Amino acid sequence: MEGGGARVSPMACGARRHKALAPWRFQSAFVRRETNPGVVFDGDLCGSETLQMSCDTAAGGGLSDSLSHGGGVDGELEVPACDGDNEVPKGCGGGGGVGGDCGLDGVDGDLVAKEGDLAAKEGDSLPKDCGIHEGLENNGITAEPLGAKPSNLPGLNCNADAEQSNFVGKDCNLEGSRTGDDAESNFVGKDCKLEGFRTGVPGLRKGRKAVAPWRFQTGYKPKWAQDSLSGNRSGETEESALTVRDGSSKRAPVMASNRPHLKGSASGGQRSLKVQKGTGPAPKKMKVDKDDHRISLVRENVLTKLREFRIIYKKLLEEEEVKCRGKGHGVRPDIAAFDIFRERFSADKYDMRYDGSIPGVRIGDVFNSVMELSVVGIHRAQSLLVDHIKKKDGTCLAVSVVSYAQPYAFDSLDVLLHVGSVAATCDQKLEGADMALQESMDTDTPVRLIHALVTELGDDCRPKQLTTYVYGGLYLVEKFHREKTAGGQYVNTFHLRRMEGQKQIGIQVLKTKKPESFDGTFTVDISGGLEKVSVSAINSISNEYLMAFRYISQIQYPLKYRPDPPSGCDCVGGCSVSQKCACLVKNGGEFPYNDIGENKEERPLIYECGPSCKCPPTCHNRVSQHGIKFRLQVFKTNSMGWGVRTLDFIPSGSFVCEYIGELLKDEEAQKRNNDEYLFGIGKNYHDVPRWKAWIEIIPSLQNGPSEDDENGFVFDALNQGNFARFINHSCTPNLYPQNVLHDHDNISMPHIMFFAYEDLPPLKELSYDYNYEIDKVHDSDGNIKMKPCFCGSTECTGRLY
Ligand SMILES: C[S@@+](CC[C@H](N)C(=O)[O-])C[C@H]1O[C@@H](n2cnc3c(N)ncnc32)[C@H](O)[C@@H]1O
């Protein structure tokens, strides 16, 4: 129901949903009914149990505690194989996560020590009071340089794409200022909070364009889709994303390309290494605003990513710990949980590494574990202190170093010493991480420095250590020594000098850094196993869980409307044009899908092969009937309630999901109090200008339901349905609903299958056009109802209806 007991018209909503539903007839014809503001849903909530999760502990703080036994770089550590691999040693003990115990790079003891311990004190002194905030900062821009250096190093994969995807996917998420008017209320399911309608109608921006416009003409590629394909869809968000990629090369002043070359030497001169500020004329005001916006979007993306990781990881860790307790020894629960996270819930599976600062990560940011360093991309070699990338010529370049030098041991962070591998014999050469560090030194490539801070917890009986990680900024490898130990081994020591011009971080501040604490909610699979690919739900904004509804993954036809099974084709080995396939004829002589199962073009109706066909399940005319194949996630948006986003890349034309709900007659739908999840079906075949050519060749459309047929059907996903009920509206949608028949031939009740209009990167919010007609939705008094649209598109008309 609308906030404040507003009245809704089920049919108005149902009719709007399908693009070519001639919605005007329905929207104007129905008077809104009074809704019952106090209605409590107590129906068959089989999904409610699965949808609930206890949220008794904080994710952030609790997480760090849980990680203290294993989050650090500890246990058996390997000499880097110089291949960029990120293997976590499974046999790691539950140590303190401290470098002191680990054999990383073959070195014992603290790997990074104060310069003064081995050499004369040097470096610039730091200002005593540096304004570092606790935890991750949410707003504003720091003076730190922006932009990872792009992969101009041969053979390197730049992460810019991943970053771009992430924050492009959140464009609706970032309408932070609008969340204020979300008066979230609705009925309450068993143990559930739910959200729904909004009160208040902000000023309308502009009139809505006509329904069923050019955008839906066959073969026409709308401008925004073209832009998107060329990597520049529209608006600041998209441009911002691009700028991240491009800007990283233009704006990576930290890179040493024009710094004096620094060779390894024992001299240890007091050199100033500056982070260069951008040169050239000052940008115009507009540009600055855009940049500010972009920077905060990128930052927001990093924060969201980290928050979401903490929420999911906490949940998985709890489960893994329970399993481990049952089984005794086995894989460390934190590692198991992280593996599950990466496999099932991470959109960034590829572990790309890159050099320079990471867009959105700020000096002073605090992390709970090496896994979190990996999630945001500042250090991806979880078991190693030095992370590196491999160049095309086979050489490795160090890009980040985790330093276990504890702040109490020194008074300046300007110069740190990293002790590398201990060579087993006198003859052994510089290798692995050491060689990568030397290469960074030779090429003046800055490395990211992460301080690992160890706190002793527990007591004598149960000693425990908590390690937190603080990003310290960019350092240059200034020089290195090889020193022979008493045992005849060589120790490689590297001097790292902090680059100037970066935000300062004081030792005192470093000591007091604490990770952010955050709750949020996470459900591993809202379908309870009914979907082939699990559909998780995450809320990183509040502690609400999804509202209760009964999850169904297939349309359940009421007995009275149950359609007859369709006639089938006789293509034993698979359907083809040459076999004169009966389904081909039903489709107007052309199969709808290409060889890889993509819909060639939007059409009024698709006949897939069905249960009576003799072709196998692998027939290329069976696509959407097989269910979802991409990983998708329900997530809480900032301004539109829950939404659905991708976790995988989805190519244009791919089947994404079906809209599933209760099948109702139009008149039954009108009696429903809540119209939020209605989807009108089976009435769009006679949009002649749009489908003329198809109507002429698809036999069933020549005498299908008439345009005036009022006895159509509606899906209502309010009480039962699948995750598609959470897909929001956008004025520039990336999905289109396609009528498909496969298990029956009744064109009045087609399946509504969503296909991708365009290539969808991971973390992109899914959307379709709800197809409301503006000013055609009325309340019971006949007043026009208005609802603002928060889709965030540059083409947004400002109103949902
Ligand atoms: C089918 S539901 C979509 C899922 C919904 N967001 C939820 O949390 O359950 C439709 C409702 O979502 C909200 N919604 C969807 N798209 C929107 C948009 N572009 N702007 C504002 N609200 C939107 C409206 O409240 C709408 O009535």
TrEMBL record:
<keyword id="KW-0158">Chromosome</keyword>
<dbReference type="GO" id="GO:0005694">
    <property type="term" value="C:chromosome"/>
</dbReference>
<dbReference type="InterPro" id="IPR046341">
    <property type="entry name" value="SET_dom_sf"/>
</dbReference>
<keyword id="KW-0489">Methyltransferase</keyword>
<keyword id="KW-0949">S-adenosyl-L-methionine</keyword>
<dbReference type="GO" id="GO:0032259">
    <property type="term" value="P:methylation"/>
</dbReference>
<feature type="domain" description="Post-SET">
    <location>
        <begin position="785"/>
        <end position="801"/>
    </location>
</feature>
<dbReference type="GO" id="GO:0042054">
    <property type="term" value="F:histone methyltransferase activity"/>
</dbReference>
<dbReference type="GO" id="GO:0005634">
    <property type="term" value="C:nucleus"/>
</dbReference>
<feature type="domain" description="Pre-SET">
    <location>
        <begin position="567"/>
        <end position="627"/>
    </location>
</feature>
<keyword id="KW-0539">Nucleus</keyword>
<feature type="region of interest" description="Disordered">
    <location>
        <begin position="225"/>
        <end position="289"/>
    </location>
</feature>
<feature type="domain" description="YDG">
    <location>
        <begin position="356"/>
        <end position="498"/>
    </location>
</feature>
<dbReference type="GO" id="GO:0008270">
    <property type="term" value="F:zinc ion binding"/>
</dbReference>
<keyword id="KW-0808">Transferase</keyword>
<dbReference type="InterPro" id="IPR051357">
    <property type="entry name" value="H3K9_HMTase_SUVAR3-9"/>
</dbReference>
<dbReference type="InterPro" id="IPR003616">
    <property type="entry name" value="Post-SET_dom"/>
</dbReference>
<dbReference type="Pfam" id="PF02182">
    <property type="entry name" value="SAD_SRA"/>
</dbReference>
<dbReference type="InterPro" id="IPR003105">
    <property type="entry name" value="SRA_YDG"/>
</dbReference>
<dbReference type="InterPro" id="IPR001214">
    <property type="entry name" value="SET_dom"/>
</dbReference>
<protein>
    <submittedName>
        <fullName>Histone-lysine N-methyltransferase, H3 lysine-9 specific SUVH5-like</fullName>
    </submittedName>
</protein>
<dbReference type="InterPro" id="IPR015947">
    <property type="entry name" value="PUA-like_sf"/>
</dbReference>
<dbReference type="GO" id="GO:0003690">
    <property type="term" value="F:double-stranded DNA binding"/>
</dbReference>
<dbReference type="Pfam" id="PF05033">
    <property type="entry name" value="Pre-SET"/>
</dbReference>
<dbReference type="InterPro" id="IPR036987">
    <property type="entry name" value="SRA-YDG_sf"/>
</dbReference>
<dbReference type="InterPro" id="IPR007728">
    <property type="entry name" value="Pre-SET_dom"/>
</dbReference>
<feature type="domain" description="SET">
    <location>
        <begin position="630"/>
        <end position="771"/>
    </location>
</feature>
<dbReference type="Pfam" id="PF00856">
    <property type="entry name" value="SET"/>
</dbReference>
